Sequence to fold (259 residues):
Amino acid sequence: MLPAHAGQARSERHFLSTKMPICPACHSRKIRKSSWHPGDGYARLLFFHAYRCRDCQEKIWRVRPLKAAVPAAMLTLVALLAWQLVRPPKHHAGAGAPSAFATLLARAQAGDAAAQLDVAARYREGDGVIQNDRLASQWLAKAAARGGAQAEFEYGRALLNGRGVVQDYRAAFQWISKAAHQGYAPAQYQLGQMYQFGTGTAMNKAQAYLWYNVAAAQGVEQAAKSRDGVVWQLPADQVQAMQAEALKLFPAAGAQPAK
Fold:
């Protein structure tokens, strides 16, 4: 004898629980997996598992949580991207004003030596701009030409290291010497090293001692160590002569009278 529902069209139910469903029509637990058919629609293929009740032949669709979540996330992402493309631009206070770097660059182009040195440092370090040693050296050269001791030293060091410019020891020596004679302590220490090792000039331990001595007087700790390393290589009269020369060049570096 056939069941009462045998001659009826098979019905379908959607079952949202992720647990094994119970037939909503006859409450039977005799549920088996079923297959998807083209007539069921592609949404069910993507988002549901198909089951069939063995007793009443009810077709049940159970949600696939993970597969449902992925398309939903993709749709959300697409919507967000579309919104970013079509939304009107924000108008901030001061919009349209030049950036801090643009203002700095304009000052440098107008011949401001301090701005030229700052622009060079920005390019050298990649601070707010794309790092570019060549442009850094070009701006250092402009600043050094205006006579600033720090700019002269930085440009001389770029030449010494061949950073953004062709390495040139003689030119480096000339620029670093200019800065050292202006009293710039890092340049004085560097000049002492160049004399000690004969970089860009003839080796001269006495001159190395002189420049180490004046740099040490300005608080360059490594200069004091280097000075003490070369002093024993010089005769006493030469040491005295270099000390006297240091006082002529930089009188303020000498000993202060006792009060």
Summary: The chain has three domains: 12-65, 103-166, 183-250. Strands lie at 12-15, 31-33, 48-53, 59-63. The longest helix spans residues 65-86.
